[in-house]
TrEMBL record:
It comes from Lamprobacter modestohalophilus. The keyword Transmembrane does not apply. GO terms for molecular function: proton-transporting ATPase activity, rotational mechanism. The keyword Transmembrane helix does not apply. This is ATPase. Belongs to the V-ATPase F subunit family. Keywords: Ion transport, Transport.
Length: 99
């Protein structure tokens, strides 16, 4: 179990046993996912929205391929609740932004 994202969230995830990477740069995010892929590890990875939106090759590959590595995004603590997934974006385009 890993968390990559803002330090205020990382602290909480570390308390419950996650390996954390607070405020990672894109190069660190890419390294973490590259190592997971190379090791063929199974992993549950939580990232914040900022990390999910980074242009990172190996994160994109993991999301595209699926399988042993599950990636889930969480919003910032101070942000209002908002569905931010590709599924939510598709639903909003079909039914309007008021979901």
């Amino acid at each position: 179990m890993l968390f990559l994202g803002e330090d205020s969230l990382a602290e909480g995830f570390s308390v419950i046993g996650f390996e954390t990477h607070p405020n990672p740069a894109p190069a660190e995010v890419d390294r973490v996912f590259r190592e997971l892929l190379a090791a063929r590890d199974q992993a549950f990875v939580i990232v914040d929205d900022a990390v999910m939106n980074m242009d990172v090759e190996h994160l994109k590959r993991v999301r595209r391929e699926g399988g042993r590595i599950v990636v889930v995004a969480v919003p910032p603590l101070a942000a209002p609740p908002k569905l931010g997934s590709e599924v939510a974006d598709r639903l909003a385009s079909m039914f309007g932004a008021g979901l």
